[in-house]
Amino acid sequence: MKIPQSSRPPGFSGENRYAACKMPVIAVDNGNRYIPAQVTADLAEYIETEALSAREAEVLSIVAAGNSNKHVAKILGISEDTVKVHMRAVLAKLGARDRTHAVAIAFRRGILTSKT
């Protein structure tokens, strides 16, 4: 079946398609593994980051529910300053700009789930 020109991705041509298909086949044929560049980049993002402690993940899950630092502190029986320390560590470890970004990253990476 021929792919209509209008539905082909940009830069798609017979030569490009052949080259893209050839690399993994040659790698595997030579006894190597082939991992696409995007997968490698995604894995590198996870490897380079330090894991959250259990307490940091707990604080983040309560924050993800929409709670303020003050309310998180009350729930966990810790000071608001301690919550702020945990959140700063979370932001640094995840490379997040703010709380919302940290929550989004944590869901994307599977650190938080809808059941958390």
Automatic annotation (TrEMBL):
<keyword id="KW-0804">Transcription</keyword>
<dbReference type="GO" id="GO:0003677">
    <property type="term" value="F:DNA binding"/>
</dbReference>
<keyword id="KW-0805">Transcription regulation</keyword>
<dbReference type="InterPro" id="IPR036388">
    <property type="entry name" value="WH-like_DNA-bd_sf"/>
</dbReference>
<dbReference type="GO" id="GO:0006355">
    <property type="term" value="P:regulation of DNA-templated transcription"/>
</dbReference>
<keyword id="KW-0238">DNA-binding</keyword>
<dbReference type="InterPro" id="IPR016032">
    <property type="entry name" value="Sig_transdc_resp-reg_C-effctor"/>
</dbReference>
<protein>
    <recommendedName>
        <fullName>HTH luxR-type domain-containing protein</fullName>
    </recommendedName>
</protein>
<dbReference type="Pfam" id="PF00196">
    <property type="entry name" value="GerE"/>
</dbReference>
<feature type="domain" description="HTH luxR-type">
    <location>
        <begin position="45"/>
        <end position="110"/>
    </location>
</feature>
<dbReference type="InterPro" id="IPR000792">
    <property type="entry name" value="Tscrpt_reg_LuxR_C"/>
</dbReference>
